[in-house]
Structures are given as structure tokens and as C-alpha cells.
């Protein structure tokens, strides 16, 4: 088990999947957001490996009928990090997923995440305001937490009191007070926020706004003079405003406390060792998508030893940053809908624009960019 975890960490994997089937078992690593099969295991050897993991995670090895969750503190050969363990009973045995959590956020630099020059200027200006809310949206695994920690690194000063409530705590940062969510004992995002307000905070980071109660508590914290950072699930930056309105937050309140809305995605980059160039047919674009520039040829994924035969090596974040100015605030207050025209006038780059540029430069494939182009129609 130890060698498996060490190998996954070396390859930059975020998760290890151990799965049991009728005639074979397998191990898959999630690399750059996609699962890659690494090993096949004999059916007779699989329960032994599962039990070893359960013992390390302080789980009940006799319980095979119910799901279990645990945590492993992994420490070997200079490496030290936490692993979140999830065990799920399936038809032919138990499926185990190990989430490898990086313990140190000191190497995360906001300049290297993927912001364009203007997006970085807009974002850093927004987080320097003493109060208000900064919300980052995107699906699970789009790098929202990494962006939040890069932000906290900038805000982390000796004169600042920073509190976070997270599920799970993926990174640790010295000088920041981090709290692990425990819903089973009543420690939820909203209950933690209530206590935070009595802890004299300057900056509050909430892992995710999942419900109306948490949204209202976050807004209350922002209104009382605190800077609140959080994530929310929407398809676009402006979709954050729509989601808050759906949660019955009045438009005038959103306009008053939302500093900036950010949407982000992670796109896999083509492997430079094996990508190949072919002529491009515009019909391949999503129906209704109008490309800003003509594309005559594009690169496709092939696969080689360097990229574990996936065709991709590494990922890059793309962003959509909307900083609220007086025009956008007024639009929110009035409940206006012509936001796309206004964003175009203000030269705000959308996710689809950034995805197209990566594709047009040959850094990613159309398969990777397609979902983003489709979502922004």
C-alpha cells in the first residue's frame, strides 16, 4: 500500500481508486482530472489490501455492509500529507477511494495559476478591500480551493486574523486558523460562521456556500465589516448573482456586498512529446458557437510514455473575473438581463474566450475545450 501511495504522489495523482469486480480487481489513478488504470490485482489479494487501508484509517475491518470514512496521516521518506479514505460496499466487494491531500500551501502562487494580466489585477484589487464577498464558482475538481489558498497566502499577515471552515482541510497554512467541518456533531458551515463572528476576524473563508442559511450568514459577516471568501456551484461568473437571487438574497444586498465573481475551469494540456497537427473543420465547433478567429489546423491527443498514453500532460486554469462596478451594481438592483452586452462593452473575457485561445494556440484539444464552449453559448 505504501509504494502505491508514494507512486501516486510522484505522478501528481489526486485520487487512488481500488475497485473489485467478479473476476478481477484494479487500481486506477486520477491524473490531470482523468482516471488512468495502473494495476490489476487478483481477487484473492484484494481484501487483504482493503483491510490494511482500513486499519491505517482506524476503520472497522469487520464492517463490510456500510460505507465508512476515515483519514490516514501518511509520513515516509520526507513526504508528509493526509489521505481521506472512503469505503463503499459494492456487488463484488468494497470500493476504496483515497484522496491525497497536500499539506503545504506555501508553494501556491497566484501569478502561476492561469489568470491573464487584467484578470489578476482585477482579482487582487477586489481581495484588498477590507470587507465584502469574493465568490469563486466552478464544478468539483476545477481548482477553486487552490485559488482560495493562493488568495489566503496574499492576505496572510501578522496583523490579520484569518479563520476558515473547510470540508476537508486540503492544505495547511501557518498563521491561519483552520476548522474541519463535522456535520455529525452540528459543526456546519453556518454554525461555524456564527462563532467566527465572535472571534474578531478580519478575513473568513467558507469552503462552500451550500444552502440559504450559509449564504445569509456569509452576507451578514460581509455587512458587519469582514472580507468573506467562498465557493459556489454555477456555470459562469454572472451565474453567481443568479444563484444568490434564487436563494432569496435581495438584489440591492448583492450589489452592495459582492466584490467580485469568479468562474474557473481546469483544462488538460496536450503532451508536447506526442501531439499531432491536422486540418480543422469549423463544423466540429458546438452548434451556435462563433469563433473569434479562423482556425485552419488544430492539435489532437495521441499518447506516449511521457503522458501515460493519455495524450495530455498537466493542466491549466482558465478564469472569468467580473468585478462589480457602478454599472453592474445598478443592473443587479434593477434586475436587468442584458448582462452579456455590458460585459462585452467592458472587455471582460469569458471562459469560452479563454478556452478558445488555448485551443487556437495548440495548447489543448477541442475535446477539452468543447464543454466550456458549449456552456457559454
Note the main attributes of this structure.
globular; 7-stranded mixed β-sheet; 12 helices; 6-stranded antiparallel β-sheet; alpha/beta; 377 residues; 15 strands; 31% helix
Topology, number of strands:
15
The sequence of SSEs as H and E is HEEEHEEEHEHEEHEHEHHEEEEHHHH
For the terminal residues, how far apart are their CA atoms? 46 Å
The averaged pLDDT comes out at: 91
In the sheet with the most strands, the strands line up as 9-8-10-11-7-12-15
The biggest beta sheet is recorded as: 7 strands, mixed
Percent of residues in helices: 25-40%
Radius of gyration (CA) equals 22 Å
How many helices does DSSP assign? 12
Q: Which percent band covers the strand fraction?
A: 25-35%
Mind explaining what this structure looks like?
With 377 residues, the protein is α/β, with parallel strands linked by helices. Helix content is 31%, strand content 29%. The protein is built from 12 helices and 15 strands. The chain has helices spanning 2-10, 46-56, 117-127, 144-155, 189-196, 212-223, 238-246, 251-257, 326-334, 339-345, 351-360, 366-375; strands at 15-20, 25-31, 34-41, 68-76, 79-90, 93-101, 132-137, 162-166, 177-180, 203-206, 227-232, 258-270, 276-279, 297-300, 312-323. A 7-stranded mixed β-sheet has the order 9-8-10-11-7-12-15, with helices on both faces. Helix 5 (189-196) runs parallel beside helix 6 and helix 11 (351-360) packs antiparallel against helix 12 (366-375).
Helices and strands, with pairings:
Elements: H1 2-10, E1 15-20, E2 25-31, E3 34-41, H2 46-56, E4 68-76, E5 79-90, E6 93-101, H3 117-127, E7 132-137, H4 144-155, E8 162-166, E9 177-180, H5 189-196, E10 203-206, H6 212-223, E11 227-232, H7 238-246, H8 251-257, E12 258-270, E13 276-279, E14 297-300, E15 312-323, H9 326-334, H10 339-345, H11 351-360, H12 366-375
Parallel strand pairs: 7-11, 7-12, 8-9, 8-10, 10-11
Antiparallel strand pairs: 1-2, 1-6, 2-3, 4-5, 5-6, 12-15, 13-14
Amino acid at each position: 500500500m505504501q509504494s502505491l501511495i508514494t507512486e501516486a504522489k510522484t505522478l501528481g495523482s489526486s485520487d487512488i481508486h481500488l475497485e473489485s469486480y467478479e473476476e478481477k480487481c484494479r487500481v486506477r489513478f486520477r491524473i490531470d482530472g482523468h482516471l488512468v488504470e495502473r494495476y490489476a490485482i487478483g481477487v484473492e489479494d484484494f481484501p487483504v489490501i482493503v483491510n490494511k487501508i482500513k486499519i491505517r484509517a482506524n476503520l472497522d475491518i469487520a464492517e463490510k455492509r456500510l460505507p465508512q470514512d476515515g483519514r490516514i496521516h501518511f509520513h515516509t521518506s520526507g513526504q508528509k500529507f493526509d489521505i481521506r479514505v472512503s469505503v463503499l460496499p459494492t456487488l463484488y466487494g468494497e470500493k476504496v477511494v483515497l484522496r491525497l491531500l497536500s499539506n503545504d500551501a506555501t508553494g501556491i502562487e497566484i501569478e502561476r495559476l492561469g489568470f491573464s494580466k487584467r484578470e489578476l489585477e482585477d482579482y487582487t484589487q477586489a481581495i484588498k478591500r477590507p470587507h465584502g464577498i469574493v465568490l469563486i464558482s466552478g464544478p468539483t475538481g476545477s481548482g477553486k480551493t487552490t485559488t482560495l489558498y493562493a488568495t489566503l497566502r496574499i492576505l496572510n499577515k501578522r496583523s490579520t486574523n484569518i479563520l476558515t471552515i473547510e470540508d476537508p482541510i486540503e492544505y495547511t497554512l501557518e498563521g491561519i486558523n483552520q476548522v474541519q467541518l463535522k456535520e455529525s456533531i452540528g459543526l456546519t458551515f453556518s454554525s461555524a460562521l456564527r462563532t467566527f463572528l465572535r472571534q474578531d476576524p478580519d478575513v473568513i473563508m467558507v469552503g462552500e456556500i451550500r444552502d440559504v442559511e450559509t449564504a445569509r450568514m456569509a452576507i451578514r459577516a460581509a455587512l458587519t465589516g469582514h472580507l468573506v471568501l467562498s465557493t459556489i456551484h454555477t456555470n459562469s461568473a454572472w451565474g453567481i448573482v443568479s444563484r444568490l437571487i434564487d436563494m432569496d438574497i435581495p438584489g440591492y444586498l448583492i450589489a452592495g456586498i459582492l466584490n467580485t465573481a469568479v468562474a474557473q475551469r481546469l483544462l488538460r494540456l496536450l503532451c508536447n512529446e506526442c501531439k499531432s497537427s491536422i486540418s480543422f473543420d469549423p463544423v466540429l465547433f458546438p452548434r451556435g458557437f462563433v469563433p473569434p478567429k479562423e482556425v485552419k489546423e488544430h492539435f489532437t491527443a495521441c499518447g506516449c510514455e511521457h503522458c501515460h498514453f493519455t495524450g495530455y500532460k498537466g493542466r491549466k486554469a482558465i478564469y472569468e473575473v467580473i468585478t462589480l462596478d457602478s454599472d453592474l451594481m445598478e443592473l443587479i438592483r434593477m434586475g436587468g438581463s442584458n448582462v452579456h452586452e455590458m460585459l462585452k462593452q467592458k472587455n471582460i473575457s469569458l471562459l469560452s474566450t479563454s478556452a478558445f485561445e488555448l485551443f487556437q494556440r495548440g495548447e489543448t484539444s477541442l475535446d477539452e475545450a468543447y464543454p466550456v464552449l458549449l456552456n457559454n453559448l
